[in-house]
Amino acid sequence: MHPMLNIAVKAARKAGSIINRASIDVDLVRVSRKQHNDFVTEVDRAAEAAIIDIIHTAYPEHAILAEESGQSWADGEEQSEFTWVIDPLDGTTNFIHGFPQYAVSIGLLHKGVPSQAVVYDPTRDELFTASKGAGAFLNNRRIRVTRRDKLADCLIGTGFPFRDLEGMDEYLEMFALMTRSCAGLRRPGAAALDLAYVACGRLDGFFERGLKPWDMAAGMLLITEAGGLVGNYAGESRQMEQGEVLAGNPKAFAQMVRLLAPFSLDNAKPAAV
After folding, report:
1. Which GO terms describe its biological process (predicted)?
2. Known binding site: residues?
3. Phi/psi-derived region of residue 112, left when phi > 0, alpha when psi is between -120 and 50, beta in every other case
4. Could you tell me if 12 and 136 lie in one domain?
């Protein structure tokens, strides 16, 4: 295992132990609202602090971009070529409700490109890992995306708009289109885990808009190392800056792009002045 991946695994397991302890009685967990339908708990903050402590102990010069604490460098400041992108608890709303679908996501970008990835599901003790060029693994067993070649036979994951509800009508159009076109749509509520599920073949594809880098940095590498494709709805590699993600096995990906490209931010009409 790559030494940097080893540190990411250590950090993810530490965060997972914090989450598991808190999950025994979620009613005792203090919850704050960041914005509409967007929550943070003391568990998110404790898990994030533990991850950052382990990473900074090993790599004090590396930059951090984390959901709760933000970026570790000032705007305009020269940044390290290594940036750790962290979501300490992806699926906070699920966690608050005791719905066991949430995960720790840690991705390492080297000069902006994902190079190491960990997604850890503490409930099931499932550890998804990948290093660039070395394949993707679930609990040390090699994983691959599915080989289904017809979208009509595919199980597809998605995420609904929940912070900014302005895009709901357009999403419902996509929802109807995809529902007619695939075997089933699933919305479990933790994008990092959904992407890991594409990588290991539990889902054939996934699409969502409004994601942040920490939702996808690790999952993207898992999928590409498992033989899948990741882009925006138009199939272009702008998902990190746009927050618009489409992923799947190569055949499903191409068919989903044909359906969803018209909805892509690439094709958004400029706002009227």
Report:
1. inositol metabolic process; phosphatidylinositol phosphate biosynthetic process; signal transduction
2. 67, 87, 89-90, 215
3. left
4. yes
